[in-house]
Design goal:
The chain has about 350 residues and is mostly helical. It has a single domain (about 1-340), classed as Up-down Bundle (A middle domain of Talin 1). It is about 80% helix and about 0% strand. It has 15 helices and two strands. The chain has helices spanning about 1-10, 10-20, 25-55, 60-80, 85-110, 120-145, 150-155, 160-175, 190-215, 215-225, 230-240, 240-255, 255-280, 295-310, 320-340, and strands spanning about 115, 315-320. A two-stranded antiparallel ribbon has the order 1-2.
Length: about 350
Amino acid sequence: MARRFLWASLALAPITILIDAVAHPSKTLLFVLAAIALIPLAWLIGEATEHAGEHTGPRIGGLLNASFGNAPEVIIAFIAVADNLPDVVRGSMAGSVISNILLVLGFAMAVGPDARLDRRSLLGQLALVFVAVILLLIPSVPGWHGDPNRHSLALLSIGPAVVLLVLYLFVTIRGLRRLAPHEGETEAAWSLPVALGVLAVTTVVTAFISEILVHSLEEFADAANLSEFFISIVIVAIVGNAAEHGGAVVIAHRGKMKLATEIAISSSAQVGLLVIPVIALLSFLTAHPLTLSFRPIELIGMGGAAVFVAFVIRDGRSKRWEGLLLIGVYAALALWFLAAGDR
């Protein structure tokens, strides 16, 4: 029954796009519609990723989900850069890293069974997140004094962005040579072309819905009296990563903890080493080049989350109470972000 409801609710996505194009309703209504429409889309991405993982193994499956799941975020960020909203872009990217390794991983561990994890792979990717934070200090520290969006800082950001991209490509190619074993195959797995096709189409639709939701956030924020910083680092980040959120939790609930944890942590590593530098470099195609000048609270949040999660999973086991702990830590950080206010 639940699966039938999810399949039927996929119609919400084209309905939301049609309403936005034809009826031009209030932004608040669009926000609600888009948020609801993202739920079945996230489920479908998780479903397709799981079937693809049956053919590729959990490591490549996690990489696939992270890549397809982060595509909407790249689109959203580029639109925000073009609209000269650098604080929203940086906040959403930092929030994406934090929410994936705390909130998504926490929920996956909380709803899934106690199980062994690919400790080496997960700790390696958490280390990459921490390395990304260290490199981002180069353009960030000068931005703590004066205008954080000055052109000289945009130029200074090019070097760390290129290093992060090279590091991501090197680690990804090297990591794919060491494939984790399958966790067992299902009898009714989709073929790999079908699974990848569903992932591609669903990602495109998710990008449209995510764009509608983000463009309706301002009116929603005014009604809720929230700061721009909180909206970008919590709400936009969660919305932009709805695919990983739903997909990892669904897969964890089915007992495939290696794939679920790969999705959560590899997505954070991909944001830090791929999404952030790609957005920074692509921003030079616009009139408003993006500086990678993150606030101290953003860097502390990303680096602290990576270190804390590494400590939690150091034994290579997934435990439900640890998942609840990660969710609690994320909630505490969200309250800190709420109290911090805008830059």
